[in-house]
What we know:
By secondary structure, the chain is an alpha/beta fold. It contains 8 helices and 6 strands; from the N terminus they run H-H-E-E-H-H-E-H-E-H-E-E-H-H.
Amino acid sequence: MSPDAKAESLASLQDRIITCDLCARLVEWREKVAREKVRRFADKEYWGKPVPSFGDPRARLVVLGLAPAAHGGNRTGRIFTGDRSGDWLFRALHKAGFANQPTSIDRNDGLSLRDCYVTAAVRCAPPQNKPLPGENANCRPYLLRELELLRRCRVIVALGRFAFDAAISSIGLSEGSSRRPEFRHAAELRLTGAITLLASFHPSQQNTFTGKLTEPMFDRVFMRARRIIDED
């Protein structure tokens, strides 16, 4: 399949994602947040729909998050854009050479990813950032299809336990793995198809404000991803 054909296939998948209405609770919540807003974004137009993935269709690095933030991706229409978690993510990607700039404010800000694709296990902002099991199951086919299309993927960085579990469930552990590994920051393991899974604490304010996740800790995960890809 040519690079252009891959891009078209991924683009078609994103078109399908943004019209999804399988989860009534998530539809109600994302639209409620988009209507009522918060004071600091009262003058902004919210996206209020499932948030598509984005990045390089030939990416060897896939970054997997939990779900869009209510006033981040659900507002801007681009995953990890317009919130504090995105500030951390794109700064780290820029340092490791995967992004052309260290910030992501809105979906028309000129951000471009190189050899990197950013996605999420769940595509709608969930109440309290906690999707229900059925909502996760409804979204899983989208992730599975993306991973099929991203044929050059060699490394997945999972941001948080939820994404870590989603990656393992979607791809499976490499042959010879006897038991499911525990989630911990900087954990590294092999998935089916010679894909390396790297775990990181999620760059949520709960983790970054408390010092559970520091910028050097986070940067080292993406520098490790860079080394694995460059050695491939």
